[in-house]
Specification:
With 365 residues, this protein is an alpha+beta fold. It folds into two domains: 228 residues, no CATH class; 89 residues, no CATH class. The protein contains nine helices and six strands. Strands 1-2-3-4-5-6 form a six-stranded antiparallel sheet. A hairpin with a 2-residue loop joins strand 1 and strand 2. The longest helix has 40 residues. It is elongated. Keywords: Cell membrane, Membrane, Transmembrane, Transmembrane helix. It is found in: Cell membrane. Pfam families: LptF_LptG. It is a multi-pass membrane protein.
Length: 365
């Protein structure tokens, strides 16, 4: 077997990848079954407390909650699948045979790394297609205490939008005869950050690519004088979507939907740092499955009969748990604004990639 060949033979590669995938998804199935049962025990009382709810609503909750559990614990299942697979191969001296054939540690791990890339792709697709929708529906259902979901007519209240250097506050936006109408409009006109005028109007409505207000009153801050304005246009380029934006739930949106929401929020002059961190995390979280073979590789190398195989497996699990802790900590710090969004999402991944490589080189011999 040549060192120029990065992978072992086709047969060995398929054999190792199959062992990894079977163990990973078997562990995931067991975790989902146990955790869903425990979660249902804590939530079933609240679900059944609403009049009219019964077995159908219980199963509906399970259908919405199970995708969340799968997405959350798939990387952890990949870690345990890696450790069990490599420990078994080491115990049976199969790793020793591969290394005796001249394979390096990275060549031994190559089939698992490729298989984990497939797991990451499945995880990303599943998160975008299933988990995001299930999360959005479940959050709305929880907000009404598991009662009937209200129809969203698009009404929003207490909205702030930036128009260049000016600020616009709207008490409420809704639709009248199919057209957006603003109620309680206040425009804070500023000059270089200094408040110059305050324009108030009871009603505003869409007018071409801008908005139109009537029976408005302009208050001059410098002179204290009030002036009536029969009609005026404002907010050129501001779309109705910028007024209807409410608190964005990053977990309930797919990658594309969240990116669009961030763009709209930026145009509206609202802070988006926490959402940008969540956007990047939608990429780094599925890719964490690729890290698991590297972090769990410590259990593959070393002589099994030395009695340290269990210790090596524990070290692999400790590295995996440390990654999950660091990842959650970085996301929390990003939400608080202490970390830049990109750093909050990718720093733990890159850090443990280097740690995994360092441990692999250190423990290979």
């Amino acid at each position: 077997m040549s060192q120029a060949d990065f992978f072992p033979s086709r047969t060995i590669s398929i054999y190792m990848a199959r062992l990894f995938l079977v163990r990973t998804f078997a562990i995931l199935a067991g975790l989902v079954l146990i955790l869903q049962t425990l979660d249902l025990l804590s939530e079933s009382g609240r679900i059944l407390a609403h009049p009219g709810n019964g077995q159908a609503e219980i199963w509906h909750y399970v259908s919405l909650r199970t995708p969340q559990i799968i997405a959350q614990f798939l990387p952890f299942a990949a870690l345990l699948g890696t450790i069990i697979t490599l420990s078994t191969l080491n115990q049976n001296s199969e790793i020793v045979a591969l290394k005796s054939a001249g394979l390096s540690a990275h060549q031994v791990l190559a089939p698992l790394l490729i298989a984990s890339l497939g797991v990451a792709a499945i995880s990303f697709t599943f998160n975008q297609r299933v988990v995001a929708r299930a999360t959005a529906t479940l959050n709305q259902w929880k907000d009404v205490d598991y009662g009937p979901l209200p129809i969203d007519h698009g009404n929003r209240s207490n909205i702030w939008v930036r128009d260049g250097g000016n600020l616009i506050h709207v008490n409420q936006i809704g639709q009248v005869n199919g057209q957006e109408r603003l109620a309680g409009v206040t425009i804070y006109e500023r000059d270089g950050g200094t408040l110059r005028d305050i324009v108030t109007a009871p009603i505003g409505q869409r007018d071409g690519d801008a908005w139109r207000i009537e029976n408005a009153i302009r208050f001059d801050v410098a002179s204290g004088e009030k002036t009536k304005i029969p009609a005026a246009r404002f907010g050129k380029g501001i779309t109705p979507g910028q007024f209807t934006l409410s608190n964005v739930d990053a977990d309930g949106l797919s990658f594309g939907e969240l990116r669009s929401a961030i763009t709209d929020l930026k145009e509206a002059g609202r802070p988006t740092k926490a959402l940008e961190g969540s956007l990047w995390h939608k990429l780094s979280e599925p890719l964490s499955a690729v890290l698991m073979p590297l972090l769990g590789a410590v259990s593959a190398f070393g002589i099994a009969r030395s009695g340290k195989l269990f210790l090596r497996a524990v070290i692999g699990m400790a590295l995996g748990f440390a990654y999950f802790v660091a990842d959650n900590f970085a996301i929390a710090m990003g939400n608080l604004g202490a970390y830049p969004p990109f750093l909050a999402a990718w720093a733990p991944f890159l850090l443990f990639l280097l740690i995994g490589e360092a441990v692999l080189f250190r423990t290979e011999e």
